[in-house]
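Consider a typical record:
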Amino acid sequence: MENIIENMINEFGIFEVEAILNKMKSKINIQEELKKDIILLLTDSIIFIDKNKDDVDYRKNNKLICYYNIKDNHFFICDSVLTNLTSKYNLNTKELNLLLNPIVEEILNYKNVRVM
């Protein structure tokens, strides 16, 4: 690994390699912070299962914050929540959803879930 980094430094320069490593570190920190935010968001939420047993709704203060579609294995985050998270972390929706997939899978135990 050390040789690989040395080769990268020789090829691209120390500042470019340092910037890449910092970006990777930042992404890890964002994912950890995002996980805390999702846990906080879901804490004390009320869970409803619709009468057709297709969706699991998560509500907080009587407002829908997210829901899980059982049939499609998709987890949807409501626009207002999504907007707050994209703004906080300066990510677009696609980037945010990619970071959320493993978090939702871990926290809610929805295997191979796709965050939408």
Notes: The mean pLDDT is 87.
